[in-house]
Every structure is written in structure tokens, then in C-alpha cells.
Write a structure and sequence with these properties.
By secondary structure, the chain is of the alpha/beta class. The protein has helices spanning 3-30, 34-55, 57-63, 84-107, 112-139, 151-154, 161-169, 187-204, 214-220, 234-241, 253-262, 288-296, 312-316, 327-330, 335-346, 361-369; strands at residues 145-150, 172-178, 208-211, 224-227, 245-250, 266-269, 301-303, 322-325. It folds into 2 domains: 3-138; 140-369, TIM Barrel (Alpha-Beta Barrel). The chain is 55% helix and 10% strand. The chain has an 8-stranded parallel β-barrel with strand order 1-2-3-4-5-6-7-8, surrounded by 8 helices. Helix 13 (312-316) links the parallel strand 7 and strand 8.
């Protein structure tokens, strides 16, 4: 067979297998999902077996000319960017799917059966892309940055999809939409905005939480709702939300305990430091209360209120798993850069002054979501 055709077959076989192997490793070592890992491995080996039988691996290797590949000099900017786990999955599954399409077409030069079997495998890979992304959502570890997108702070910038997407992609683990003044945004617009954020959150494979508005959360299929002390009682909210996430703002150890007893899925505690984001936030509680709650409440704890790059270490030393940030990110000249720095620090193992016993956030949230 023509050497050029053999080079095409060889290059695309490698691309298909490499893309699948990247996703297979994520399923195996990060998600600990043996079923998904085994399915990806089986597809990878079947592709190799089909091509080897049809074209002979030794012929493909002898035709290989990696250094003479004119495509080595071609570069696309998006190749250097990945949006978390979801970005890695999508990029590598698309790589495999495209390569398999090429193998399908050129496989027909050998025999019709080879092309047909590769086509069937390609459709399996389309299905597996959805399966793996769903697995990521089930196993998402959110012990990092919890970004609150406050309309009162962001204003019309909140509608800039690229701007918001870039901030979230920089390392946000969970995002909340907060629109306190409904006079500024009627429900019709709020639903459109929430749907936009739902799409961004899906692309990043992170949960979307809606502040206060259970009706909006249910309408757009958000992952959960965050309620205050004066909002709907947890029991009533649970009847509406089912097994979706319900987070509760608390301002004392007693309130945190009560929220846990009432069935909250996570507890927000604050304000830890002085904050201007919420005028009714109350006096700063300090970091000591976080440590007390972490020791006594077996739920994910989200610290909030005036947290920034300067005081982040103090908060992390309490053993808290999730850091909620508003102004420090949204008021920054380069919000994505702040997210990257704070996310990197927040995902390190926190230093605690005493043993902390609590349910790991990634376990609790994955159980809640699915």
C-alpha cells in the first residue's frame, strides 16, 4: 500500500489510542471507576487489533516519519488550554473520535468490514464521552474555591459569558448565583442568566447553586440552592428540592448544629472577616468558630466573608474544606489570576492545630448530587 496512506493510518491510530488512554487514566486513578476504565481500555485495544490485522503493525511503523511531519509546525492556541477535568475529557475524546473517523475512511481501502467495525467503535466513544463526564460530576471534589457571582457587585458584567467562563475555568470548584434585589432583574431575565451559568458549570463539570430562589433552581435544573436563616425552612425546601444540594448560612455554632440536625447538606459560616459585600452580614466571627464547627458538625463547612489572598492561610489552618469568595475575585483587575492563586493554595492539605473529624466534601457532595 502507498506509504502516505500507511502514515495516515499510523498517525491516526496513535491519536485515537492516546486520546482514549488519557481519559482511561482519569477514570482509573482520579474517579476510581473500574467499569468506565475497562470499557475505554477495551475500545482502545479493539481499535489496535483491527488496524493491526488489516494493515500489519510492522508496515505502519516502517512507514512512520515523525520528524518529517509537516503538521508539527502547526499550532492552535486552544491546544495549550484545558478547562479542568471536563476540558481534558472533551479534548481527548474529540481527538479520538476524529482520528477514528479518519481510520474508518482509510480502512475502507483495505476492506469494507474494517471501516464498518471502526465506525461502530467510534459511536461507542461518543457514548463514552457522556458517560465519563457524568462520572466526573458524580465524583467532583469541591474542596477548593466556592465562587459567589453577586449581581449587585458585578452588574451587567455578569452577562459576559466569556468573562465568567474564564474566571470559573481558572479553578473554581462550585459556583453560586446570587441576585438579591429582584427589582433589578425580573424572573424572566434571571432564568436566562441562570441557564447561561448552568451551561458554563456543565462545561467545567462543577455544581451550580442558586441563592434563595428554589423556584429558579428547579426551573433551570441547578444542582442546589443556598438558603439563609430567614428563608424557607430546610424541611419544606427538601420537599421541593428532593436530593439536590441544600446549603444553609449560619452565624454561630448553635445555628450550625441546628442546620445539620434539620438536614442541610452543607453549612456556610460567616462572616469570618469584615465584609462590604452584604450590608446585613453582622460582626466578623473570626476563624476560631470554623474550627469549633469542623470538630462538632459532620458536614462540609464553607467559610465565607471577607476572605482574600492575605488572610486565606488563617482560614485554611482551621481545617475547613471549602472557601467562599466574592469581592476578592470579582473586584480584582484580573479575577482569573486571583482564582488560580487562591485555588492552588486552597487545594493543598490544610495545617490543623488539632484533629478534625468531618465528612470529606467530595464524598458528601457526590452523594448529594447523585
Amino acid at each position: 500500500m502507498d506509504r502516505g496512506i500507511l502514515r495516515i493510518i499510523d498517525a491516526n491510530l496513535n491519536r485515537a489510542r492516546e486520546g482514549l488512554r488519557v481519559v482511561e487514566e482519569l477514570a482509573r486513578f482520579d474517579l476510581n471507576d473500574s467499569v468506565v476504565s475497562e470499557r475505554l481500555k477495551a475500545i482502545r485495544h479493539e481499535i489496535a487489533g483491527l488496524i493491526d490485522k488489516a494493515f500489519d503493525a510492522s508496515l505502519l511503523i516502517s512507514a512512520r516519519d515523525s520528524q518529517g511531519d509537516v503538521g508539527l509546525a502547526i499550532h492552535v492556541d486552544t491546544e495549550g488550554c484545558r478547562t479542568g477535568r471536563a476540558g481534558i475529557i472533551k479534548a481527548n475524546m474529540k481527538r479520538s473520535q476524529e482520528a477514528m473517523r479518519v481510520l474508518e475512511e482509510f480502512g475502507k481501502l483495505n476492506d469494507k468490514e474494517t471501516g464498518c467495525r471502526i465506525k461502530a467503535l467510534r459511536y461507542q466513544v461518543y457514548e463514552m464521552e457522556q458517560v465519563v463526564l457524568q462520572a466526573v460530576r458524580r465524583n467532583k471534589n469541591i474542596c477548593g474555591l466556592y465562587l459567589i457571582l453577586d449581581y449587585g457587585l458585578l452588574g451587567e458584567k455578569i452577562w459576559d459569558r466569556d468573562y465568567i467562563g474564564e474566571i470559573i475555568a481558572a479553578g473554581v470548584s462550585v459556583v453560586q448565583l446570587r441576585v438579591k434585589n429582584t427589582k433589578d432583574m425580573p424572573d424572566s431575565k434571571l432564568i436566562i442568566l441562570a441557564n447561561m451559568l448552568r451551561q458554563i458549570a456543565d462545561e467545567a463539570a462543577i455544581p451550580l447553586i442558586i441563592n434563595d430562589r428554589i423556584d429558579i433552581a428547579l426551573t433551570i435544573g441547578a444542582d442546589g440552592v443556598h438558603l439563609g436563616q430567614d428563608d424557607m425552612p430546610i424541611g419544606a425546601a427538601r420537599n421541593l428540592m428532593g436530593n439536590k444540594i441544600i446549603g444553609i448560612s449560619t452565624h454561630s455554632l448553635a445555628q450550625a448544629r441546628q442546620a445539620a440536625e434539620n438536614g442541610a447538606d452543607y453549612i456556610g459560616i460567616g462572616p469570618i472577616f469584615s465584609t462590604t459585600t452584604k450590608h446585613d452580614a453582622g460582626q466578623p466571627l473570626g476563624c476560631k468558630i470554623i474550627h469549633e464547627i469542623c470538630k462538632t458538625v459532620n458536614l462540609p463547612i464553607v467559610a465565607i466573608g471577607g476572605i482574600n489572598e492575605d488572610n486565606l492561610t488563617q482560614v485554611l489552618e482551621t481545617g475547613v474544606s471549602v472557601i467562599a469568595v466574592v469581592s476578592a475575585i470579582l473586584k480584582a483587575s484580573d479575577p482569573a489570576a486571583v482564582v488560580r492563586r487562591m485555588a492552588e493554595r486552597s487545594t493543598r492539605t490544610p495545617v490543623t492545630s488539632a484533629p478534625v473529624t468531618r465528612t470529606p466534601v467530595h464524598q458528601s457532595i457526590s452523594q448529594i448530587l447523585y
